[in-house]
Amino acid sequence: MNKRYFTVGMAGHIDHGKTALTKVLTNVDTDRLKEEKERQISIEPGFAPLFEDDQLQISIIDVPGHERFIRQMIAGVAGIDFVVLVIAADEGVMPQTLEHAEILSFLNIKDGLIALTKVDRADEELLSLVEEEIRDNLKGTIFENVPILPVSSVTGEGCAFLKSSIVEKLLLLPERHHYGHFRLPIDQVFSIKGQGTIVRGTIYEGSVTEGDKLSILPNNMNVKVRQIQVHHEQVKNAYAGQRTALNITGVPLQMVKRGDTIVSPDFLNTTDIMDVSIRVVGKLKFPIKQRMPIKCYIGTTEVMGKIVFFDRNEVALEKEEILCQLRLDAPIVAKRGDRFIIRRPSPHETIGGGWIVDPNGKRYKFGEETIALLQRKKTGSFSERFLSLLEEKKALQKDVLLTDMSISQEELKKEIQHQEWIVFNDFITHRKIIKELFQDINRYLTDFHHLYPLRTGLTKAELIQSLKRKYPQHLIEFGLKQGVEHENWEYKGPYIFQKDFNPYLPEKWINPVKSLLATLKKDTWKVDNFSLYLERVGIDTKISQEITQYLVENGSIIPLTESIYWHKDIFWSYADDLKSKTNPSFDMQEAKAILGFSRKYLVPFLETLDKFKITLRKDNDRRWNE
């Protein structure tokens, strides 16, 4: 796409002129609520179009400056690309100036400007002192070195230059990702008669088209996009970076709230335990205690929870990032890399912020081992982090991987081009995992062949059941197929066995089996119950079934019934004899006359010929199968 879309935040202390400046820049009064008009303060974020040409479309969010509305302020700036920090020349840096600056730094807003408002109320000497104060107070924030532009919403001084400066700055910023899955944290929900439910927010990533089917999380409600508006104009598509209103069907107004997230189906999961990396504010009023209640602000969501440390029990002063965990009281929508703010519920204060290392955290033990694990998650490459995931799951579906790793389709495609990654049936694994699976399959087969040398092999179902404790079934099935293709093992009927394995009689049973076969052959067709032959040569019941199956599978004996077995030579000699003395078709009476068997042996003998497809039976006749 050629055109790029950006949203600019207008932040700062209450009554420093954010709304007035926004009106001068956009000709829109963003204080739309009756209460806002009466009290002359902003309560909810206000939105207005700032600039549009063939290259850019820029929107402004004017966020509340009052401490009581900090949630609305965070929700407003959560999706911005650039910020204008508003400071009044006649008051200078105030408490919410500093808190907003810290919040914006924690949210990793990369660039901005300072608008020094109400310059019509200050002389040059005061302006110089205020600028010096701003530089001193904003050291260590993103505003430390940004331009300070004097403006007046009353006279219009500097406003055109401020607007052009914003445009110039945004031209230098990279565009957001318009491809891939769609995500929009909802900051407003309302209804228009005849239109139904409307949700509004800044698109974090992806794009949306009229008719798209989406999901609203965390309650997983399916909806359809009926109409899309950008700045009150109906459009067919909207893209990352745009302030957008979606008219949706499939869910009533009362079921949707600010803090919900509307996403592409099956894109993101909800979570209530997150591994995070945080920084704390420079001047904490009170230490942060282990498992202390906190309010977490992420996207447009506010949720209570607690902070869990693994290498300390409190934080009073810390300049470095701290690896820890947030355990929340309700599920939220998040992915790796998302930024958040944490505040103390009482007394109210912003205590820090950071980014999500892993949105799917587990409960870990206190200690260095956990910190080392979190450090690997934080700094590891794609391969290292994916392999860490695979240690537990062994293979992941592409869509699940995109969510768990918090990467785009394009990034994933680039990563899995390397030969160490294996893609199968929409799953991805690593050669290391397949090698590990092969080793386990070979170990199971080796152990089985050693324990049961008489058997052809292990059934596929039994092998899968044994391996499922460690691997998902779809990966086992893939590995077994790969092993056959690489000639590591083979199938025979339901059995799987190592390629170089042949069933064999343990030395202990060689002579007893020879004796059994000799006696069976001597008794020709009129044999005893086969269990008696086994008993006579000392083959006990523990091994008798194994030996019987072995002799059947290698063709030494032929089962006629569950208890009647003939020596192979006897069976085949009678089959040849009968065939030589009958026509192509014969019946049971002819066979009895030729062979002289009693019915006890004749019927199963003929049925076994049918079973082997030597003969084909039709009614009372049989035909030799040529």
From TrEMBL:
This is Selenocysteine-specific elongation factor. Its main location: cytoplasm. GO terms for cellular component: cytosol. InterPro entries: Beta-barrel_SelB (IPR057335), EF-Tu_GTPase (IPR050055), EFTu-like_2 (IPR004161), P-loop_NTPase (IPR027417), SelB_WHD4 (IPR015191), Small_GTP-bd (IPR005225), T_Tr_GTP-bd_dom (IPR000795), Transl_B-barrel_sf (IPR009000). It comes from the Bacteria. GO terms for molecular function: GTP binding; GTPase activity; RNA binding; translation elongation factor activity. The keyword Transmembrane does not apply. The keyword Cytoplasm applies. Transmembrane segments: none annotated. Keywords: Cytoplasm, Elongation factor, GTP-binding, Nucleotide-binding, Protein biosynthesis. It comes from Heyndrickxia camelliae. GO terms for biological process: selenocysteine incorporation. NCBIfam families: selB (TIGR00475), small_GTP (TIGR00231). Pfam families: Beta-barrel_SelB, GTP_EFTU, GTP_EFTU_D2, WHD_3rd_SelB. Translation factor necessary for the incorporation of selenocysteine into proteins. It probably replaces EF-Tu for the insertion of selenocysteine directed by the UGA codon. SelB binds GTP and GDP. It is found in: Cytoplasm. Residues 3-175 form the Tr-type G domain.
